[in-house]
Structure formats: C-alpha cells, structure tokens
Amino acid sequence: MPKLTTGLTVASLVCALNLAVPVSAASSSSTREFAAQTNRPRITIYPRRYLPPNATRQCVSWLVTEYRISGTVIVPRMRCWWEY
Asked: DSSP state, 60?
C-alpha cells in the first residue's frame, strides 16, 4: 500500500509541474524547431563548362542495399548529367 500512495503522489506532483509550465515557453520551443526546418540553404548547381541556354540537367535515381554492422539498410543513389 505504501508503494501505491508514493506512486500516486509522484504522479500528481509530475502533473502539477507540467501544468505550471508557462504556455509561451512551450510554444517557443516548438516554434524554434519549426523555424529550424524551414530555413534550409538553397543549393545552386553550376555546370563545369559553358552550356547552351536550352541545356537541361537529367538525373536518374535508384535504391541500393548496403550491408552495415547495424544491419542491412536501403540507401538512395543518384547520377546526374547535363543534356543539350
């Protein structure tokens, strides 16, 4: 019986502490996490040599099985080239 009352006391204390957290602190952490995901740098691809204005970049992607110490994983691979 003492374990049950101790458990209930700890559970009620944890709930009381969670309710005491200000709303602004909780929302600011989620805002920061969202902002970190949206501010990604833009990558610009430049060709190595001069290409005509109608040149396009073609890409082929596929999945490859890799055998690692932690286990077998499937990883993406990509090959790209300029076509004109």
From this structure: E
Q: What is the pTM of this model?
A: 0.41
Are residues 55 and 81 in contact, defined by beta-carbon separation less than 8 angstroms? no
Q: What stretches of 20-83 show up as alpha helix (H) in DSSP?
A: 23-38
Q: Are 82 and 56 in contact (CB under 8 A)?
A: yes
Beta bridge partners of 6: none
Spatial neighbors of 75 by CB under 8 A, at least 6 apart, are 63, 64, 66
The partner residues of 60 in beta bridges, in order of sequence, read 79
Of 17 and 31, which is predicted with more confidence? 31
Per-residue CA distances from 40 to 4, 25, 34, 37, 43 (Å): 50, 24, 11, 7, 9
pLDDT band at 71 (very low <50, low <70, confident <90, very high): very high
CA distance 59 to 80: 4
